[in-house]
Amino acid sequence: MNMNGIIAKKRDGYKLTEEEIRFFVNGYTRGDIPDYQASALLMAIYIRGLDEEEIFVLTDAMRYSGEVNDLSDIPGIKVDKHSTGGVGDKTSLIIAPIAASYGVPIAKMSGRGLGFTGGTVDKMESIPGFRTSLSQEDFMNQVKDTGIAIIGQTSEVAPADKKLYALRDVTATVGNVGLITSSIMSKKLASGSDAILLDVKCGDGSFMKTEEAASELAALMVKVGTMAGKRMAAIISDMGSPLGYAVGNSLEIIEVMETLKGYGPKDLVEIAMVLAGGMIYLGGKADSFEEGKKMAEVAIENGQALEKFREFVKAQGGNPDIVDDYTLLPEATFSVPVEADRDGYVANLFAEKTGLASQQAGAGRATKEEEIDMAAGIYLGKKPGDEVRRGDYLAMVYGNNIAKVKAAAASLKEAFVISDEMPEKQPLIKKTIGL
């Protein structure tokens, strides 16, 4: 078997066999196949596409290119959740304690942020003392003891995806739905949970700009996960504007705790209840998705989710006193307001521009090696549909570098669109699959 033949076969639009796909993935991961041949095949796949069977085999080969977590020693149905990324998306840290408070085991690996999207790992690391790296034994024991552990993605999980994604990023082959599916699902399947809930974003602040594209990706990921023997479900949600009011690491941790205390923003609470309800249902603790949603609401009302969050923070070395004293979190030295320059209504607040402004303030990174300012970020004062007067506070930008904060505030102003008419409200949850 040789790469020239495999490249030519896909170039001409033919289906690749399981043996050919595994030959490529294993060979490239080992370093036996050079970048130029892998790039050629990726471009052929990008143009010609993959069918469902090819996507499953590619995902499976990438899944088994490294360590695959065995969570069988943890009692119960282990449930994982994955978001395709967004601005202000801190739902994992809300829904995981909710589900865990009902006995759904959460053994989750999460990623860091890159560019304008925030990463769960970075947010957790803004908590003093919090450890995002645990040994496998400690990880398993924590889930058994507290019902929840969230750590950073290790390099041993799906190393083929890491190599292939880096190559796709520089060869203009990222945007193929089959390659996106295999990239996401190889890591999720290798993480070892029994059920996976997907939050696939659409709109300005997401990779999939339309509901149709997001729906196609969600359906394909659900299909691949089901073929792998997992219980799957997905929601399609809007990311045209930031989720909640806080964008930035410590700011988002505060909003997580406010939400768990029952004071969360309406949009964040809405999606959190849907996702938490889905996790409770997939975890076998509710007979229906609707019952799961009601149980999620109760977990907020009676405080059990907040106590589970406190327990989770303490178990991973973080200071649980942050729940009662937000000043223990990183605080910014500087703040610069963004004000409205006319009367009207906020017609739009572009998520991507907001995320880029937050990154500019120091809350995100342009490269994986870049240090981030845990206190930097944005707190929104107005959202789409809100009425404003000239001079009203639209947002506050925070950070520890005044030049960066001022530049970010100037950029953020461009994210707000103010018009004379109130915009039509758009649904946050577009559709669900398998719930």
Task: Give an overview in words.
It is a single chain. The chain is an alpha/beta fold and 435 residues long. Helix content is 44%, strand content 15%. The chain contains 16 helices and 13 strands. It has helices at 3-11, 18-30, 35-48, 52-63, 92-100, 120-125, 136-146, 159-169, 177-190, 211-227, 249-260, 266-282, 289-301, 304-315, 351-361, 402-413; strands at residues 79-83, 106-110, 148-152, 195-202, 231-238, 246-247, 334-339, 344-349, 377-380, 387-388, 393-399, 416-419, 429-433. Strand 4, helix 10 and strand 5 (231-238) form a beta-alpha-beta unit. Helix 2 (18-30) runs parallel beside helix 4 (52-63), helix 4 packs across helix 10 (211-227) and helix 5 (92-100) packs across helix 14 (304-315).
How do you describe this structure in short?
This protein is α/β, with parallel strands linked by helices and 435 residues long. Helix content is 44%, strand content 15%.
Envelope shape: globular
Q: Provide the low-confidence segments as ranges.
A: none
Helix content: 40-55%
Let me know the average pLDDT.
Answer: 95
Helical region count? Answer: 16
Total strands: 13
Summing up helix and strand content along with how strands pair, one would put the structural category as: alpha/beta
What's the oligomerization state? single chain
